[in-house]
Amino acid sequence: MFMISVKNPDSDSNLPDRPVCSVCIANFNGIDVIGPCLDSVYSQVCDFPVEVIVHDDASRDGSVAFIRKHFPGVELIESGENVGFCVSNNRMVARARGPYVLLLNNDAALHPDALATLHAAAESPGSQAIMGLPQHDMQTKQMIDIGSLFDPFLNPIPNLNPARLHVGMVIGACLWIPRVLWNELGGFPEWFGSLAEDMYLCCLARLRGCRVIALSRSGFDHLVGKTLGGGKVVGNALRTTLRRRALSERNKSFVMILTFPPPLLQLVLPVHLLALLVEGVLIGLIKRDMHVFQDIYLHSLKEIFRRRHQLRQLRREAQTGRKTGVRDFLAPFTLIPHKLRMLVRHGVPRIE
């Protein structure tokens, strides 16, 4: 039996005031996906109260009117301007009342026992952890991952081993976190904009001695690539977009600089920067389009230089209170670069 928070007029008036879980959904022009997403939340089979918060990021497609009409129990935050994914989630968690928060993409749909599964694991002894669920393709229902591992350059590698509990990161499309831990970590860096903010949060949590766990039970369906386009294999070829790749390369570099413990950063960062430069030149030459090099790879290097003072200060803050040594931090890493695997398997990515 699903118990929604007392804000829902259809719910039992005797339910406790405080929800156990706050489901936070960032929405921008998602009128074609937000309905199934919210339906999946309201269809949960669980015995604890839940509140649902949606931050609408200045949508222009009638999303606000749609949510108000069809989901009157939702606590709706309307933004007067487009502020981005990170700011949207930070605002919702600041409003959340539950001790647990589930960040959920508007293009994702929970399996019916998702909240119950996450809550049961969170209530087990010593489980101060970020958690995720198996991710399935919305259209094919094929499993995409059970969390992700990393290669040396922080490229996510899909974990398909259900016996592996501890991972490098779980995707922000369905990310469960104790609200206390979120506050301790400081939430998402708002200047990231989008992409790799979940990687940052998970890496910072692991640096501070907390676990990142991917449960093998239940799951969620995700319309991958809906928001930024690309980012998936189509017809045995990897497709992405210029914007997605630029944000990804830039923000992964930021995460590395902020969270890699010494001396790991001093060893990996120079190789990473050189690899970006070489990769960008080679892809530009192969595609006969140096805009790819300039707009993705050179842009990332320029951004690192431009923000070097800010990154240096934020690194000091991130490393404060570090409880994890290099060996433990590297536990979910593999040695073989994931991009090399993907190049052998799918060829040079198509960048649209």
TrEMBL record:
<feature type="domain" description="Glycosyltransferase 2-like">
    <location>
        <begin position="22"/>
        <end position="143"/>
    </location>
</feature>
<keyword id="KW-0472">Membrane</keyword>
<keyword id="KW-0328">Glycosyltransferase</keyword>
<keyword id="KW-1133">Transmembrane helix</keyword>
<comment type="similarity">
    <text>Belongs to the glycosyltransferase 2 family.</text>
</comment>
<feature type="transmembrane region" description="Helical">
    <location>
        <begin position="264"/>
        <end position="286"/>
    </location>
</feature>
<keyword id="KW-0812">Transmembrane</keyword>
<dbReference type="InterPro" id="IPR029044">
    <property type="entry name" value="Nucleotide-diphossugar_trans"/>
</dbReference>
<protein>
    <submittedName>
        <fullName>Glycosyl transferase, family 2</fullName>
    </submittedName>
</protein>
<dbReference type="InterPro" id="IPR001173">
    <property type="entry name" value="Glyco_trans_2-like"/>
</dbReference>
<dbReference type="GO" id="GO:0016757">
    <property type="term" value="F:glycosyltransferase activity"/>
</dbReference>
<keyword id="KW-0808">Transferase</keyword>
<dbReference type="Pfam" id="PF00535">
    <property type="entry name" value="Glycos_transf_2"/>
</dbReference>
